[in-house]
């Protein structure tokens, strides 16, 4: 039998099947995040709510203090993220809560752009002399004061998204259990020192509530996303990102990689961090028995189960 919330699942199954939390539930929870492996989604119904404003406050802390109090910091507001600079051990903590207050005036665009260009100029220049990156980042934080305390009110999507221009860079990202955040961040910090790599990109840590989608980074429990960034150092991506992933596995952090960013994990490891991995593979075999929906990326993921040949 053919079933799926998909348009054309395979030559053997050219039909559209609806799926929801109460109908064809395996397809709903498997196909919502499916990496394009199951077919084509032709219709999606989203549950939307009214727009709202957020009041955001930013404070600067030392990394040790932020990690020591990470549970309180992350739980006391609706939306929280850490922006970490590892060479100085400094964190800018952004916390936001809903408010009825109107948006505050937009800050001077010239000053915002000035900060952006200052960081980008430093990133570009030090990428040719990576040994100078730690000193340059200390200058940005300690002398230039690129991290600072602030507060503002704005519509939710403007507050939560990054409005400034972001220089092109390479990223990796791993979702780890909420209680593993301090150990995971400390692990990243140690690896940076061990391999002697300069990091000129600020790294985010943000937490997300759990969901029920099989291949979601946040399946079944509350997780925090630890991002890693490299600017113009592509030759060291496998070394740095790979070593972080390996060490996170060793400390029991069960790292789930962001599917659209760089990672070195393979299917054997995916099976240990995604409880529903085997169910997804079975669904793939059911909905796409002829491997119609496969490509180079998926073949690199499903190396063991052989559902993409």
Helix content: 25-40%
Low-confidence stretches: 1-12
Topology, number of strands? 8
Average pLDDT confidence is: 90
β-strand amount: 15-25%
Please give the largest β-sheet.
8 strands, antiparallel
Radius of gyration: 22 Å
Shape: globular
Tally of DSSP helical segments:
11
Give me the side-by-side strand order of the main sheet. 4-1-3-2-6-7-5-8
User: What is the chain-wise order of helices and strands?
Assistant: HEHHEEHHEHEHEEHEHHH
Structural class, from helix and strand content?
alpha+beta
Walk me through what this model shows.
There is one protein chain. With about 300 residues, the chain is α+β, with helices and mostly antiparallel strands. Helix content is about 35%, strand content about 20%. The protein contains eleven helices and eight strands. The chain has helices at about 25-30, 65-70, 70-75, 110-125, 135-145, 155-160, 180-195, 235-250, 265-275, 275-285, 295-300; strands at about 55-60, 80-85, 90-100, 150-155, 170-175, 205-210, 225-230, 255. The protein has an eight-stranded antiparallel beta sheet with strand order 4-1-3-2-6-7-5-8. Strand 2 (about 80-85) and strand 3 form a beta hairpin. Helix 4 (about 110-125) runs antiparallel to helix 5 (about 135-145) and helix 7 (about 180-195) crosses helix 8 (about 235-250). The two termini are about 25 Å apart. The model is unreliable at about 1-10 (pLDDT under 50).
């Amino acid at each position: 039998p053919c079933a799926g919330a998909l348009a054309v699942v395979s030559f053997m199954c050219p039909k559209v099947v609806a799926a929801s939390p109460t109908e064809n539930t395996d397809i709903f929870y498997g196909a919502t995040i499916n990496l394009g492996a199951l077919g084509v989604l032709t219709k999606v119904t989203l549950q939307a709510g009214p727009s709202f404003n957020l009041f955001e406050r930013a404070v600067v802390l030392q990394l040790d203090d932020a990690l020591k109090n990470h549970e309180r910091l992350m739980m006391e507001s609706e939306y929280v993220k850490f922006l970490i600079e590892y060479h100085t051990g400094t964190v800018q903590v952004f916390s936001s809560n809903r408010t009825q207050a109107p948006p505050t005036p937009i800050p001077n665009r010239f000053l915002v752009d000035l900060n952006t260009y200052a960081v980008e100029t430093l990133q570009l220049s030090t990428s040719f002399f990576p040994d100078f990156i730690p000193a340059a980042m200390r200058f940005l934080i300690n002398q230039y004061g690129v991290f600072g305390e602030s507060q503002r009110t704005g519509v939710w999507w403007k507050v939560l998204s990054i409005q400034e221009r972001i220089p092109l860079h390479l990223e990796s990202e791993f979702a780890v259990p909420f209680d593993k955040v301090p150990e995971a961040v400390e692990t990243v910090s140690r690896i940076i020192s061990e391999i002697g790599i300069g990091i000129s990109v600020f790294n985010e840590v943000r937490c997300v509530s759990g969901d029920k989608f099989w291949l979601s980074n946040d399946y079944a429990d509350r997780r925090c996303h630890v991002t890693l960034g490299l600017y113009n150092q592509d030759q060291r991506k496998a070394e740095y990102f790979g070593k972080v992933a390996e060490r996170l596995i060793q400390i029991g952090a069960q790292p789930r990689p962001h599917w659209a960013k760089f990672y070195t994990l393979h299917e054997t490891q995916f099976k240990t961090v995604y409880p529903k991995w085997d169910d997804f593979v079975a669904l793939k075999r059911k909905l796409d028995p002829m491997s119609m929906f496969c490509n180079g990326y998926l073949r690199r993921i499903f190396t063991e189960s052989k559902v993409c040949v």
